[in-house]
Amino acid sequence: MSPAFIKGVREELPNAQITFDKFHIMKIINHGVDSVRRAEAKTNPLLKGMRYTVLKNDENLTTKQRASKDKFLSELNVKTVVAMQMRETFQQLYQLDDVHVFKQKLREWCTWVERSELPEMIKVKTVVG
């Protein structure tokens, strides 16, 4: 999924369709969310040591992690919360059955990320979208 790989495929196999699997896309998105969290943790002590709590799906959180997550979700102006919402919204796209609806929702997601002014997530969007 590196830009060099994509460029190489496009140049050498111009008729090939490049498909990115969910695992690798979510890995890139999780990296973006964690980058937002790390940057914000410098000024917000609630986010220190919260990496796995932020990156886990809700159904996999322990009781302690759920309580910690609920605490920082209640904070106003937490960029990490917005990045997490972007991650969760992207995951929901995989539940769509209609390819046209998927494409439309993906475009909407990309627009949201672009307007978010979160450089870490905008970087993710350039790979995903």
Summarize the structure in words.
- This protein is mainly alpha-helical.
- The protein has one domain.
- It contains 7 helices and no strands.
- It has helices spanning 3-12, 22-41, 51-55, 63-73, 79-93, 99-115, 119-128.
Proportion of β residues?
A: under 5%
Number of strands: 0
Tally of helical runs: 7
What value does the Rg take, in angstroms?
16 Å
The profile of the biggest β sheet is: none
Structural class determined from secondary elements: mainly alpha
Keywords:
129 residues, elongated, 7 helices, mainly alpha, single chain
Quick summary of this structure?
This protein is mainly α.
Layout of strands and helices, then pairs:
Elements: H1 3-12, H2 22-41, H3 51-55, H4 63-73, H5 79-93, H6 99-115, H7 119-128
